[in-house]
Backbone:
């Protein structure tokens, strides 16, 4: 049974911390990519155009039905066999495409949660559907999206650990490296778990702050 050694942990802590910028960077850019994809896919999901709506539905259903690890392999090894894709870009694209499907559903649910009578009232006073969506429906829907989006972003930060399978130097990979050199798995995995917890906790604080700022009294 391995024993806990604080000097060993402190000695290899810089190695673990060297993977933290990679984790934060991947998660940040993947979140931006996911929001961008999810916003337009969500708009397509509530579109009156049946072709656009069905294409968005196919995207959402397919991506949500495929494990993230498989998507990473498909983009890096599959698509990468035709186009040269850097590891970092492959990880960001994979997580962004995966997250975008869930963000699209969050967006769709938020839009549909706004009473339909508001759209009808907007149309009756001469607004187009696009104007009503932009000026009346979306402001309310975006406020309701904050809690589920925060949960999705926290999940995405943890999912970024899968980028280690394509040798990106993020937190999980540097933990593997430290364990390989010291054979002390428990203390390093506990330290890594604490780091992921801190990242999630910070995101939760930010999300609750935004919830208070955007709170709506119905």
Residues:
């Amino acid at each position: 049974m391995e024993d806990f050694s604080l000097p060993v942990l402190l000695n290899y802590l810089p190695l673990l911390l060297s993977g933290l910028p990679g984790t934060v960077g991947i998660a940040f850019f993947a979140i931006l990519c996911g929001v961008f994809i999810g916003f337009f896919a969500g708009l397509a999901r509530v579109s009156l155009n049946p072709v656009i709506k069905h294409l968005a539905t196919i995207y959402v259903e397919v991506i949500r039905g495929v494990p993230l690890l498989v998507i990473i392999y498909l983009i890096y090894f599959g698509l990468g066999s035709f186009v040269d894709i850097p590891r970092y870009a492959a990880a960001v694209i994979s997580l962004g495409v995966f997250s975008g499907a869930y963000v699209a559903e969050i967006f769709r649910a938020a839009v549909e949660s706004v009473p339909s009578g508001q759209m009808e009232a907007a149309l009756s006073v001469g607004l187009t559907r696009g104007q009503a969506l932009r000026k009346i429906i979306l402001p309310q829907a975006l406020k309701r999206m904050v809690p589920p989006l925060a949960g999705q972003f926290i999940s995405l930060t943890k999912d970024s650990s899968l980028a280690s399978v394509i040798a990106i130097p993020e937190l999980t990979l540097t933990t593997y490296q430290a364990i390989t050199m010291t054979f002390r798995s428990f203390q390093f995995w506990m330290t890594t778990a604490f780091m992921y917890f801190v990242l999630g906790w910070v995101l939760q604080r930010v999300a609750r702050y935004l919830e208070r700022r955007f709170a709506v009294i119905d």
Residues 22-168 form a domain with the MetI-like fold fold (CATH 1.10.3720.10). Residues 129-159 form the longest helix (31 residues).
